[in-house]
Amino acid sequence: MDSLSILAMAAAAVQQRESESLKQTAEYSIRRAQSWDIPLLEYVERSAAEIFRTVDLGFLADGDTVDPAALQAMAQADHLWVATNRFDQPIGFAGGEYLSGNFHIVEVSVAKEFQGKGVGKALMTTMVEHISREGYKSVTLTTYRTLPWNGPWYSRLGFFEVNPHDMGRDYLELLASEAQHGLDVRSRCVMRKIL
Known about the structure:
Oligomer: single chain
Number of strands: 7
CATH topology: Aminopeptidase
């Protein structure tokens, strides 16, 4: 066997090991979303929503995703972050917007194969750091109160449940809109984190 063949075999072995390690580890980075990311985020959100099938909320996995125009507006406002794999492909995202004096999180999604590996927490940490520097004093969101990857997870990140009536009309309207889209408002809640 000549040295060129040995070198080619070694390169193939290294490439195979790198491919296998990518599947086994959650190598990622967080950056601001770019316009070319927007069309890819639907796939991330759909993959992330598959977990809802495990608790008889499969309609969420089959339902609408965040409107690309809304994602584009968040990106233009520098309020949309993506987690990317080492090939710079989105594997997660988090975005939000101004709502009644607060920064309101519209969506946090992590692709199914990357869930439970710290990607969501890294996205949230990055988002909170940036919006805090912008002068926001609190962050809000709506979520399922008891699903482990919803209310309890956000609680571990410093969020606490608040009465939507205390938050104002915009939050009541937001919950009403969720109800119109089939979400059970009795199991939903508004959460807030003071910065």
